Amino acid sequence: MQRFLVSLLILFVPFFYGCSDSPATALVEGTVSFDGKPLAGATVMFQPVDGFRLSAGETDASGKYTLRFTPTKMGAVPGEHKVVIQTAPGEPDPENPVKELLPTKYNSATELNATLKNGRQTVDFDLKP
Length: 129
Fold this sequence. Notes:
Blueprint lengths: L1 H17 L8 E8 L2 E2 L4 E6 L6 E4 L5 E3 L1 E3 L2 E2 L4 E8 L25 E5 L3 E3 L2 E3 L2
């Protein structure tokens, strides 16, 4: 029994040590346009390549977004990110299909990347058809 408890401790201590409820975040905002026009109602997601929690925001009528890390914390963790931009909400629903307006190279097969540094920054996306 003692070996089992020690094994559990060895497995879970690195997990808890590496997880923080409140990591440092960079404040990120920007504008998304598609074919030269502001893209309203799109979801912009920054997923750190190291697998940490993603940050997301939604574009307003002028295509502007601000990333949110949690409901109460703005920003995204600094570092390398894959960026996903989509207009259709969530996963596809066969019973109520919503057509994605953007090419897959911006969402399900994203080619977008961003490197975030500490502090406030602007990351704009000018998407092409």
